[in-house]
Amino acid sequence: MWLVAGLGNPGKKYAWTRHNVGFLVLDEIIGRLGLECRERPDYKTCSGSIGDEKTIFLEPLTFMNRSGSAVRELLSKNNISVENIIVIHDDLDFDCGRLKIRKKGTSGGHRGVESIIQNIGSNAFIRVKIGIGRDQRMLAEDYVLSKFRKDELPAIREAIVTAADAVACIVREGPDKAMNRFNLPPGK
């Protein structure tokens, strides 16, 4: 069984902001699979399958820096191994629309990822990172909550579709094959 968590902030105010790219990818996957979701006070989940693999899709609704509690709860309820967690999130250090898959690592300063690491006691989960770029004129906290510029929308829409494909590849073929296929150098 797999757990796929898309990170973001709840509410219409944050829709299509840079920090919500994890939600946008999860919505793409859920739409492709035609799944019905259930909402609880702290999270929204859908259950389905990618290929033959049962998968739970999770959107924590506790704001980014408290995402880990929902991951911990679903991990323990469903007896999922840490290596079968995929977390989809934004990354300031990559150009807008660039994708990178990692099998484990530090939070890199991402508060949602840090919350997950603290709550589950491990950093050995898979990450699908989507670049959102950086604006040196803005504080990072303000930038991640800003909407994508019109000229960035084609790249981010393509990244959402590609990231959904990458998640399916991870589940079906494993993270190494997905990394070889989707971790392309910039401009490729």
Protein model, in words:
The protein is of the alpha/beta class. The chain has a single domain, classed as Rossmann fold (3-Layer(aba) Sandwich), CATH 3.40.50.1470. It is 36% helix and 22% strand. The chain has helices at residues 21-33, 68-78, 111-120, 140-143, 153-173, 175-182, and strands at residues 2-6, 37-39, 43-50, 53-60, 85-91, 99-102, 126-131. Strands 2-3-4-1-5-7-6 form a seven-stranded mixed beta sheet, sandwiched between helices. The mean pLDDT is 94.
Task: Write a concise keyword list for the protein shown above.
single chain; 188 residues; alpha/beta; Rossmann fold; seven-stranded mixed sheet; 6 helices; globular
Radius of gyration: 15 Å
Number of spatially distinct domains: 1
Give the helix level as a range of percent: 25-40%
CATH superfamily (homologous) name = Peptidyl-tRNA hydrolase
Looking at the structure, the CATH topology is Rossmann fold
Instruction: Tally the helices.
Output: 6
Question: pLDDT below 50 for ≥5 consecutive residues: which ranges?
Answer: none
Report how far apart the termini are.
33 Å
Q: Whole-number average pLDDT?
A: 94
The side-by-side strand order for the widest beta sheet comes to 2-3-4-1-5-7-6
The CATH class is: Alpha Beta
What does the largest sheet look like? 7 strands, mixed
Helix-strand pattern, N to C? EHEEEHEEHEHHH
Strand content: 15-25%
| Main structural class | alpha/beta
